[in-house]
């Protein structure tokens, strides 16, 4: 990874533990053995946002409809979880057939708009692959989006050099072609396990 992306300590918020607990308590997992990720069907709202992309253009969730989408919150100065996760997701999608690769998209939402302008965001996501879209927005927009999916993020006090750490969830949210929430993926799942779930979603109804 390029050294221009400074390394800073990152706190990771437990991956929406309240949602996972709700899933376990309500017994809404369906046939759990079918999925490696947690089945969140019906437990969260459909994919919806109005942000800007890494070209500085306003976009909405409708601009990316028709594909299975993986949503991940992070920031470009993240020293560990973000680059590791994006690298894994790129390996997962790269391992699909060319036809299936076109059916999957990763949406990386930066929750650090003060530092992650479109140019920086574009350089970052391009480093990890072609099927990754960088998104960001005003802090209020980002907080509303995080709240929509029952997570949050926060900023620590800047150090002497002005840099600061950002706490955020490590969860990956997976939505089907219609934007319905389907899976919550933990970053500790193997690439093969994630790929299995993506292929199953892509092939639904085909």
Automatic annotation (TrEMBL):
Metal-binding keyword on record: yes
Domain Thioredoxin per the UniProt entry, residue ranges: 40-206
Residues engaged in binding Cu cation: 78, 82, 168
GO function term, MF aspect, one: metal ion binding
UniProt superkingdom: Bacteria
Keywords: Copper, Disulfide bond, Metal-binding
Disulfide-bond pairs as recorded: 78-82
Disulfide bond is among the record's keywords: yes
Cross-referenced InterPro entries: SCO1/SenC, Thioredoxin-like_sf, Thioredoxin_domain
Family: Belongs to the SCO1/2 family.
UniProt-recorded name of the protein: Thioredoxin domain-containing protein
Naturally occurring in which organism (per UniProt): Marinobacter algicola DG893
